[in-house]
């Protein structure tokens, strides 16, 4: 029999089987990595929802602490007033302002396309405005819209996240010691005091952030409602409410909130748009750099550049929820690094 008709040797067969095994091993490793990455991303989103629920629980307990100090009531009664009172206040606000806000939102949604068209015409009358419009081509606008749409999306959906967050907040508010002690039980015995110290410091920092953020949102809403109302800007209440809510997103939120106000100002006159822009800038500056730092004295000082990087990273990973929680999450990480690596403190007695 000729050499061409010889059957494959055992050595060549073994070689071929080894190669196939390596290919399948590689495929399995890649598939496993993909699954791990997907699970990690979902787990990270769940972690953010846990943090959001914790922040709401911290708010209820902080308000309960204040009620207990002022009235000398028992803890249970103070917490009941804190939770029930907060929901009652929200219900009253929606009752009195809901119809007006809904009407103004409807007006804004119907008039916004015409407002943008009018603003473009007024911008085209100036050299700087013409250059800006030239850079904002249709392709760039579509790309910006697509990016914004992706940016303001989350894995489970905003409403789904909200339901989960509210349920977590209720559980954390009802029995916080159960979860706190559960975390401490995972820490080695000789480090439990340090663990309690770190948890208490994180709680104090989150309370400071919440107090500053909530007061900032209310002040921005009140100041812009008065200012835009005096300027006779249409749908002033909605614009002020939007600016107050977007205060949750440091740096970027203020810029986004200013856009519709300036566009509506342009429909009146260029000078009105400039005054409206200055009003937004002054209000945000006073609240951000004067009022908020006074309230947030106990919160860790966060470098602005690091805050922006954290927001961009969190926005890419988890959408709007990540952007909102970027600052408290960064504060928690910096406290952990400070306590566990930088200071190397002894366990607190």
TrEMBL record:
Compartments where located: Membrane
Acetylation among keywords: no
InterPro entries: AI-2E-like
Membrane topology summary: Multi-pass membrane protein
Pfam entry (one): AI-2E_transport
A cellular component term, taken from the record's GO annotations: membrane
Transmembrane segments: 23-40, 46-64, 76-97, 151-172, 217-242, 248-266, 273-296, 308-337
Statement: the UniProt record of this protein carries the keyword Zinc-finger: no
One of the GO biological process terms: transmembrane transport
Domain of life (superkingdom): Bacteria
Keywords: Membrane, Transmembrane, Transmembrane helix
PANTHER family attached to this UniProt entry: TRANSMEMBRANE PROTEIN, TRANSPORT PROTEIN YDBI-RELATED
Protein family according to the UniProt entry: Belongs to the autoinducer-2 exporter (AI-2E) (TC 2.A.86) family.
Protein name: Predicted PurR-regulated permease PerM
Source organism of the structure: Mucilaginibacter pineti
């Amino acid at each position: 029999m000729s050499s061409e008709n010889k059957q494959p040797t055992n050595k060549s067969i073994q070689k071929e089987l080894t190669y196939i095994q390596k290919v399948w091993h590689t495929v399995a490793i890649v598939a496993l990595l993909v699954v791990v990455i997907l699970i990690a991303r979902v787990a990270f989103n769940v972690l953010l929802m846990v943090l959001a629920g914790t922040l709401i629980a911290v708010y209820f307990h902080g308000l309960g602490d204040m009620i207990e100090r002022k009235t000398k009531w028992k803890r249970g009664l103070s917490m009941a007033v804190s939770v029930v009172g907060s929901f009652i206040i929200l219900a009253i606000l929606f009752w009195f302002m809901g119809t007006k806000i809904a009407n103004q939102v409807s007006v804004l949604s119907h008039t916004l396309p015409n407002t943008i068209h009018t603003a473009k015409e007024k911008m085209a009358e100036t050299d700087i405005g013409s250059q800006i419009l030239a850079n904002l081509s249709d392709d760039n606008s579509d790309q910006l819209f697509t990016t914004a749409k992706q940016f303001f999306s989350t894995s489970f959906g905003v409403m789904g996240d909200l339901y989960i967050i509210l349920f977590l907040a209720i559980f954390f508010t009802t029995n916080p010691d159960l979860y706190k002690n559960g975390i401490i039980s995972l820490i080695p015995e000789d480090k439990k005091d340090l663990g309690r110290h770190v948890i208490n410091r994180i709680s104090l920092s989150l309370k400071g952030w919440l107090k500053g953020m909530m007061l900032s949102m209310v002040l921005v809403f009140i100041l812009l409602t008065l200012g835009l109302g005096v300027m006779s800007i249409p749908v002033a209440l909605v614009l002020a409410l939007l600016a107050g809510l977007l205060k949750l997103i440091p740096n970027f939120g203020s810029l986004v909130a200013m856009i519709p106000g300036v566009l509506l100002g342009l429909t009146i006159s260029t000078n009105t748009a400039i005054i409206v822009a200055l009003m937004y800038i002054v209000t945000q500056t006073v609240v951000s750099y004067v009022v908020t730092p006074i309230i947030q004295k106990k919160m860790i000082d966060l470098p602005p550049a690091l805050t922006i990087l954290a927001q961009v990273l969190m926005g890419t990973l988890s959408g709007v929820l990540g952007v909102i929680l970027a600052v408290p999450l960064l504060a928690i990480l910096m406290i952990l690094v400070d306590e566990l690596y930088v200071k190397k403190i002894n366990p607190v007695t």
